[in-house]
Amino acid sequence: MEEQKIRRDRFMGQNLQRLRVEHHISQEKLCVELQRRGCDIGRTTYAKYESGELNIRASVLMELKKIYGCSYDAFFAGLE
User: Is the pTM of this model over 0.70?
Assistant: First the structure.
């Protein structure tokens, strides 16, 4: 029997959480702002981004960059 190998992709959940906490915003308020900007995302989905259960969509990442006023590097810190 061949052992199945599961490759876990790198995730930026810790960076997403750090940026949100640094900007003193709850997941709920962040999701409301993302929805206002056209990203159809709920708190449960966003929580899965932070926990690494889901990979974040590029469109959401683009809006978060605008909200936080940061570079994309902030999302990928430590993932090298």
Answer: yes
